Amino acid sequence: MNCTSARSNWELYHDSEGDAQLYREVNEHLARCAACREWFDEQQTFEGKLTARLCEVSPSVELWDQIEQALPNPTTVKPSFRLLPLLRYVAAAAIFIAIITAWQWSTA
Fold first, then answer.
1. Which of its termini does the chain have fewer beta carbons within 10 Å around, N or C?
2. CA-CA distance, 65 to 77, in Å (whole number)?
3. pLDDT tens digit string along 88-97?
C-alpha cells in the first residue's frame, strides 16, 4: 500500500468500517511510513477536537429552520426506479413462460 492509498482509506480505517485486510495493510504501511503515521495522528487529533466541539454546541431553533428549508420537500421528490431493471427481467421471464406454455398446448 502506498501513501495515497493509505490516506484515502483514512475514514474506513478510523471508523473501523474497512475489512480486516484493509486494516492490516494500513497498519503495515503506518509501521514503515513516518509521514503517514504523523498525518494519521493529525487527522485523529482533528476528528477528536471536532467531535468535542460539536458536542459542546447545541443548534438553535433558527439553524434547524434553515436546515429544514434547505431540504427538498418529500412530496416533490420523484420516486426512484431502482427496481426497473429487475422488473424487465421478470417481465421477460413471464413472456418466455407464456410462449413455452402456448407452444406446448398447441402441440398437444
1. C
2. 20
3. 778 888 888 8
